[in-house]
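Make up an example, fold above all:
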Amino acid sequence: MDGNISVRYLQEYIRKKDYKPELLKDYFLKLSEEVGELSRAMRKGLRAVDKGEISGTVDEEVWDVMYYAIAIANLYGVDLERVIQVKSEISQSKYPSAIVFEENR
C-alpha cells in the first residue's frame, strides 16, 4: 500500500461493505461507543508498538471512529470530499490561516 487513500475511496469501500439504512441509530450508537474507546486509549496512552498489533490502541480506535462517521455520512448521502472543501473555505474565512486547503491532493 502506497498510503494514497482518497476520501472518495473510503466512502465507496464502506458503502459496499456496510450500508444498512435501517441501522442508522445503531451506527450512531456504535460511533459513540468508539469515541469512548478512543478516549480510554488516549487516557492510557495506548499506541501500537508495531504495525501488525493495533488492538485497543489509539491507532485502531481512530479508524473505528472514522469508519462509523463515514458510514453515517453514506446513509445521509453526504459527499465528504465536497463537504471537506466547502467546510475548509468556511473555516478559512472565519479563521484566516496561511495554510490553505488544496484540492486534488
About this structure: The longest helix spans residues 24-44. The chain has a mean pLDDT of 95. The two ends are 17 Å apart (CA to CA). The domain at 7-77 is CATH 1.10.287.1080 (Helix Hairpins).
